Amino acid sequence: MTAFVSAGFPAFSAESIHCTVIIEEASGDALYRKGSCAEAFFPMSTFKIPLAMMGYDAGILQDESSPRWDYSAEFDRPKREQKATDPTFWEKESIVWYSQEITRRLGERRFADYVQRFGYGNRDVSGNPGKKDGLTQSWLMSSLKISPDEQVAFLRRFLSGGLPVSEHASAMTLAIVPHFAAGDGWDIQGKTGSGFMRDKAGKADRSRPLGWFVGWATKGDRRVVFARLNVSDRPSDQPLSIPTRESLIAEFPGIAARF
């Protein structure tokens, strides 16, 4: 699907892209897979899940409510983010500056090392071409990319204890990822992510919004891992992550009935 490369960014066809993939946590077997799930895209705020693991493992984050950091005007974020934030609020409300404070405290070397050891996506945290901003921008429409297939494989490794982080880091990450009730007794935990594709000049193409919802769903003693990605061919009046999440929650019981 890649058409050309400009300013370090691949350009994709203008067609809409949709993927839903669900795997069994215990075995890794595919339970449901529909759409284009092998191509890699910017992870956006879905990267808050691995960032939580890094933060807790490195001792930067302590528990569900600490540290609580105050907003600073130098962060230059939208009004909805201009408030004191703790780990639970960070995940629930997708506070970008809190993510960037975690990576700043990690530092370039430790941040890159975690991404490498996690085997996360293409592992490229170099950032935007020529800007040396990978520490705070690499996952935000920049160098780091991951496919839906890679998202579920990564999350399965996390859930099964296959990532190089402490038990505390795993437990705290599980504790702060938001819950959503689905039908037929399924409890869904997951994280959204929204952004835009890049145009030929490498700039954000607001006519091509992108939306993610990734996580896991539990019913009784069974847990499955999912990723849903949508890339639209027209502008949206809200982040595409919202309808992506809500559609997956609404459809999940019907999909799960086929397992």
List the helices and strands and how they pair.
Elements lengths: L3 E3 L2 E3 L5 E8 L5 E6 L12 H10 L29 H7 L2 H11 L1 H11 L15 H4 L10 H12 L7 H10 L2 E3 L5 E12 L5 E16 L2 E10 L9 H16 L3
Helix pairs in contact: 1-3, 1-7
Could you characterize the architecture of this molecule?
Pfam families: Transpeptidase (PF00905). One of its GO terms (molecular function) is beta-lactamase activity. Its EC number is 3.5.2.6. There is one protein chain. By secondary structure, the chain is α+β, with helices and mostly antiparallel strands. It has a single domain (4-256), classed as DD-peptidase/beta-lactamase superfamily (Beta-lactamase, 3-Layer(aba) Sandwich), CATH 3.40.710.10. The protein is built from eight helices and eight strands. It has helices spanning 48-57, 87-93, 96-106, 108-118, 134-137, 148-159, 167-176, 241-256; strands at 4-6, 9-11, 17-24, 30-35, 179-181, 187-198, 204-219, 222-231. The strands form two sheets. The chain has a six-stranded antiparallel beta sheet, sandwiched between helices. A two-stranded antiparallel ribbon has the order 1-2. The longest helix has 16 residues, at 241-256. The two termini are 31 Å apart.
